[in-house]
Amino acid sequence: MQDNDRDLLPEGLGDRLPQQAWASQQVRRMAHDVLASHGYERVETPLIEFEKALAHRMAGVQVRRMFRFVDPVSMRMLALRSDMTAQIARIAATGLAEAPRPLRLSYSGQVCTIKGDGLDPRRERLQLGAELIGTDSVAAAAEIVELAIEALRAAGATGISVDFTLPDLVDTLSVEALPLPEAGIEAVRQMLDAKDAGGLVDVGGEGYLPLLYAVGPFASAIERLAAFECGGALASRIAGLREIAARVGDKARITLDPSERHGFEYQSWFGFTIYAEGISGSLGRGGTYRILGQTGHHPESATGFSLYPDPLVDLLAAEPQAQRKLFLPLGHDPRVAGQQRAIGWITVAALSESDDPIALGCSHRLEGGEAVAL
Question: How far apart are the C-alpha atoms of 330 and 32, rounded to whole Å?
């Protein structure tokens, strides 16, 4: 029987053909140029690590999303990375433990999950980000938000908007301002996530109802949140949000949803999700968090963002690109060809008399030491 599926790829995985691969490289290069210009040094991490290292460096990392298998050498459980942030945390806590703080690091690479995210079936995605380790101050958070916007804009995104949130909001309020029994905290979180006012009342969270209406454009939503303020419990957070928004200014449209928690598994007091015009769904998120030290204790504050720019890559790849390709006929002068490449030409050398420059995507032909349009 003929094997008809030998060339199939698993669901959610795919190749990048030349135009798509070019777009991916363009996005990464432009974004990394921005990060490097702000002092973020690039690091690279392995695709596979011990499961324990990936799962326990930061609270909230979801092991169930990772492909896991036993290492035949060490007989320990390995995992294919589903998020590079935990790996950057490991580097900061080990190899760069003695480096001066705040520590600025950037990264990019492929990550893989067992299942796609929501309506997106992709199980392998490009992750690109930056981490500012050693502080989670308002100034650090503002720098990270501005940096994410600038990196996306350089990579080709337009009409950028940012949605602010306070991931630990319920935990903060339930301690004293709006007390909840231990069993009720998660129920209130779920009703806020669902934006269910009736359900919120049913689970004993009546006092949290104003949070459902402190949503929308930042200027009006922050005023509603301030009016709800609960005797000063949120004063520092509200002041921080205002300061970050002021720093962003008109670089992006800002909205606020203080109780949004989707995708914020390990963030602490501040989080944000970033969007761009013409792209459905978010392009990434970031915020403040904590990483454990080398011994698993002494947590260190950090702020960062992770972008998942595959939709932007797809958009860029779909745009027609006018490439300057120069066809080099048989017997051409290699010295002249090198000069042409030095001034920006992409050259395609003939390998036989039958090579067709137009079929090979060339716009010009080298004749008499000059580029002649075809």
Answer: 39
